[in-house]
Design brief:
Length: 367
């Protein structure tokens, strides 16, 4: 009995020490540069298909941002819109296409929640990607970061000033353990940031540092590793630019009136580790094309698959520590309460919204 107690205590001590020395859930990642690992990202992380939104079919995730982070997600994306309150004041909210249809609340509130998670998880590096839908200035967005207090964790590249001026990507990124040691554990990209702020130099224009493949896919055969944004890149020039590759890997489904919504029914295949159209196969294919795994992969309904399996394989992580387990189930929308709102139908870049008012259909498209 005594020996068993000693063994149990030793196992607990080992687990505790391992968790303390892990970076982004694995000790093996600590010595790797930020741009040489693969970060699991959630597409439209703030827009939920859960009880809080009456299971709105426009939602891209079943779990909120802090649950996502605790389960191993390390890149959160969201759209930022200007919102006019009933009192006539202007606020900055996270809205899926239009604040009338799916409003996740103030940007500052969301950032405060992520800050609280960072406060409690000191060995993790997190990335934010904000789609700047209403072309807010760097100063405007930076004010929200300052108000939330999350800017205390902000990472600013040493070459940021020249990068913003010349449009050149940073060539060398620090290791995760260096960022953790310096407590600069938050990297923030904005798409796009036409007017950077000298007061908030940690807000980085996405397409200066990142390139993406196409995100508008409706079939498992649509996925490609070819650069789509920023325009003018091909495989060779994307590599030469030192930009990091963000691999979009999610599907849309076309509904009545040509409306597109996140394809949830196929997610078990989309987020799987193997099979045609799977996340795992796409990671392997793009790794072959570029000679290294994507720096970021972006998925809908991250828990299904689960998507993190393919990311662990890309990172060579076999025994992750410190993660919270979440269900890998898809929400059964046939038995879930229906949203009374409209459906926002695209994620990043542009959105289409359809509202049903009586027998009248109103469609609005944002570029």
């Amino acid at each position: 009995m005594f020996i068993r107690s000693i063994l149990q205590a030793s196992a607990l001590l080992y687990t505790t020490v391992t968790a303390q020395t892990a970076c982004n859930n694995s000790p093996s990642l600590c010595s790797k540069p930020y741009n040489n690992i693969t970060h699991l990202g959630t597409h439209n992380a703030a827009f939920l298909r859960d009880a809080s939104t009456s299971f709105n079919t426009a939602g891209n995730q079943f779990y909120n941002a802090t649950v996502q982070l605790s389960a191993g997600v390390r890149l959160l994306t969201a759209q930022v819109h200007q919102f006019n309150t009933s009192s006539g004041q202007s606020e900055w909210h996270l809205c899926h296409g239009d604040c009338k249809f799916l409003d996740a609340g103030p940007l500052e509130t969301w950032l405060s929640e992520i800050k609280s998670w960072l406060d409690a998880n000191t060995n993790d590096v997190v990335t934010l990607l904000l789609v700047n839908s209403d072309r807010a200035s760097g100063s405007t967005i930076g004010t929200q970061f300052s108000a939330s207090g999350i800017d205390k964790y902000a990472y600013t590249p040493s070459s940021n000033s020249s990068s913003q001026q010349t449009g050149a990507a940073q060539q060398t990124w620090p290791t995760l353990e260096s960022m953790i040691s310096n407590n600069t554990r938050l990297v923030t990209f904005v798409a796009s940031l036409s007017t950077p702020s000298p007061q908030h130099p940690y807000l980085l224009d996405e397409f200066t540092h990142v390139f993406e493949n196409d995100f508008e896919n409706e079939s498992p055969t649509d996925y490609t590793c070819t650069p789509h944004r920023p325009s003018g890149l091909n495989t060779e020039t994307a590599l030469e630019s030192n930009r990091m590759f963000l691999m979009n890997h999610f599907l849309y489904s076309t509904q009545t009136f040509g409306i597109q919504t996140p394809n949830v029914t196929y997610t078990t295949v989309t987020n799987a580790a193997s099979g045609e159209g799977s996340l795992g196969e796409s990671v392997l294919e793009c790794s072959s094309v570029y000679g290294k795994a994507p720096t970021f992969v972006l998925v809908d309904f991250f828990n299904v698959g689960p998507a993190v399996q393919s990311v662990d394989r890309a990172n060579g992580v076999q025994s992750a520590v410190g993660r919270k387990e979440v269900s890998a189930d898809i929400v059964d929308e046939r038995t879930a309460p229906k949203s009374s709102g409209g459906a926002v139908v695209r994620g990043r870049g542009k959105a289409s919204v359809v509202a049903l008012v009586g027998a009248v259909v109103v469609a609005v498209v944002w570029a």
